[in-house]
TIGR03759 family integrating conjugative element protein
Amino acid sequence: MKWLIPLLLLTATVQAQPLQVQTSLSADSALRPLTTQQQATVWGITPEEWQRYLTLKQQARGVWSPGLDPLTTLGVEAESDHERQRFAELLVRQEYQRLEKELAFQRAYDAAWQRLYPGLTPLKTTSASTARVSLFVKDDCPPCDSLLRTLLAQQRPLDIWLVNSEGDDNRVRRWAMAHGIDAKLVSEHSITLNHDAGRWLLLGQSKIPVALERKGEQWREVLP
């Protein structure tokens, strides 16, 4: 009988070893970097396009636009209209899905606040913010002009979306000139001028004008 306990312990140790090895292998797999195929799949592109993106990052585009996402990088450096259109559509789909998730979380956050602290206004920081503001405006809109002047006076980084531009670059340029948008700020990317492509309906909930600021995964309205 005196050998029974050591024998049982030895058996238990031997049986436990494969589990320890399996756990170690699983941890190693979790820490392993994604393959080229996996990275490409995340963005909906081919492995060859992913390699081209990595190459472009090492060239002038990587210096001009550090941190640019793969789809925008490939779209800007596209070699044909068909290719450019494809990357644009991929980016729109990705942005739509991302915004849907962020808005769903925002709604859940607001509901949780009302449930846990009914009657209390959500806390807001009183310190000056330097986060970028997405401003949605239209032509011939005095309230839009007023909000624009306020944000420009605050020297906030602005992404301006002209809702009724109809994809017309000249229309955006005329609007910018009429509203005194500083070309230097545009060249420095402190201000960007953009055609709205459905973002207003998704984010602004049809309110015009509206200024929104991203806080982590949430969008908050910026009040003047």
